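Quick one, T. Sequence first:
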Amino acid sequence: MIAYLSLFQLKPQVTEEKLEQMMAQTRVTLLRIPEVLTIKTGKRVNPSDPYPWFVYLEVESMDKLAICQDDPHYFKFREEVLKPNISEQESTAFEMEPRKDVKYS
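Structure tokens:
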């Protein structure tokens, strides 16, 4: 099982209301992708934390993550949510099953 976490810096024009809209749109759009098992998105609680927004996805494998990222709904998410509102992104994937060799993920 793969957890894919993305942390985002927002462009200056993104308001609190816009961020709420982005979070809702992200959930609606990415849940349409069959490979996505779980999606979570949230905003920071502590204003001094470096990233104000995150998106977390769970998929079965790295192959399923690649399929997810090639899905038209994922392209829509990138074009409509990320591209106009994000200035910087950090993403990483984690294997969540204990004792599983990550090369088989």
